[in-house]
Amino acid sequence: MNKRLVKQILYGAGYLAVLFLIVFLVYLIWLKPAPTCFDNKQNQGETGIDCGGPCPPCEIKTLVPLESSWIKYFSSDSQTIIAAEIKNSNLNWGANSFSYTFDVYGENGIKIKSFTKNSFIYGGEIKYLIEPIEVDSKNIADVKISFSNINWKSAEEFPRPIIQLREVKTESAIQDSGGVTVGGFITNNNAFPLSRARIIGFLLNQNNVQISASKTELENIPAFEEKSFKINFPKNISLITAPAQTTPLYNFTRDLTIGSKGEDVKKLQEFLKNEGFFERETTNYFGSVTKNALIQYQKKINISPASGILNSKTRNYINSLKPTTPITPKINLTEIDPSKTKIYVEALR
């Protein structure tokens, strides 16, 4: 081969190598993307693909997602209150911030409202989200919730503050404003101040049915100090009224024996007749037939001796009897039982 040709080939190869090196350096310095925690590569000192090292811990990839246990909604004057119970099953991981979206649907699955809010949740916490919306509850067929933008933190990084409630009372609202209020005191039992605390309340009726929910928020609670709170509930809610007293079936006030006369003797005979021991027409006279019938009844209820005399022991037993007709409990959706109020507190450092 011609030496000149060989020399030209060598020079050309050298120029190409230099050019490639220049292009490669330009790529490395100016064009190559910097390593990130989202490039699906194990680089920049990561212990796994896009996790560990400068990236979030690899344990986050195995965490159980936030989940909703139930969603309910309550009528509130001209509004609707949406309430949801959510759960973080990860005991050692919380989220110092996350977004949640409520989607509200009407008839035929048509979405009539959607809104997104932000919150936080501690490790292993069951939390309640309460949001009022300007939609009539009659127009709501379903409500769904979804979660996004969850910023996980270990329990050491994001510990749950220690909070105490005291003197919680459920009362009727003052004067003629209507509704119910729940008030009390919240104590910050931590060596650091709390930026805010949200107090959430649920009202239940005698049947343990939730009939309303509401919330209030306090700000800047100093360490080891307390603040009072009050939660207002809708005007259509009221405290339960006292139940009517049950009228006793019988009210015998004196002893009855052979020879006794009066309207109470006739009442006793009616009672014994209903029990199947007296088969005659009722009268106002206590005779041997009444005595024998009473002896049989006393034997039935194990009163000894069965003397056939309506003495204090037998009289008190009969007077204590109540109507046997079962009373179906009424489920009232506007009257609440103050002894069943539930209060939950969430606080942020």
From TrEMBL:
It comes from Candidatus Wolfebacteria bacterium CG03_land_8_20_14_0_80_39_317. Residues 262-316 form the Peptidoglycan binding-like domain. This is Peptidoglycan binding-like domain-containing protein. The keyword Protein transport does not apply. Gene3D superfamilies: PGBD-like superfamily/PGBD. It holds the Pfam family PG_binding_1. The chain crosses the membrane at residues 9-30. Keywords: Membrane, Transmembrane, Transmembrane helix.
